[in-house]
Predict the 3D structure of the following.
Amino acid sequence: MQVTVVGSGDAFNASGRLHSCYLIEGTRLKSTMVDFGATALAGLHQIGRKACNIETFTFTHLHGDHIGGIPFLIIDSTFSDVRSTPLRFVGPIGLEKTIRALLELTYGLEFLKYPTAPQLIFEEIQPGHTRLLNGMALKTFPAAHMDPPHQPLCLRFEASTGESIAFSGDTEMAEGLRNAAHQVDLLIAECSALAPPAGRHCTWEDWKQELPTMTAKRVVLTHLGRAVREASTKLLANAPPGPRLDFADDGMVLEVLPRDVVPK
């Protein structure tokens, strides 16, 4: 499995980074996107990918820096890189209502009647569920980021060959995140600030406490605020013991090998 960091920034595009957005690919997998903020289509072009070749778009939650690129994706799929397959969206409860409202506000819904407009397929999932998706098992866990009726998610993808990748989305440090990250090969998790207060987000102070007990093999921190980005080299040098640790950047490629393959 391979994850390309399309965007590693926070909601404010701190330090000029794109909104958090990640592309999962593999030789035996259909490509899968995790989150698609307003800058995501530009980010795909920057890494040499076309949205029309991505099978499924998954979402951790319904904030604009994670779903704001969907209207641009749909018009791109209608008028530019026209899709030959439906647009499949998988995410939290309220996904379809939110995306249709966003599309109505930005471009209206009439163009969906255009002959090349893609069919839109929505699959809404609650925390605590597992389903097969693009050659992987997708498992969902509760994130602590939004109030009901919203049900934000941490996502975990498991390949049949044993590789596993988890995404925190936006969340406070919580049991849902810990469970999604348990013994995972790669955890991509948010670190929005150096210390509280940071709203319902994880901070570096949280991670300093958490990393020594984490069972994830590798942790890549993302959704970085400006202060975290600017201090990242120093933070790595003084990080507590625990899993291998990195800070994400736009365009970073992360490899996860099958369990029976030994890295050279």
Notes: The mean pLDDT is 96.
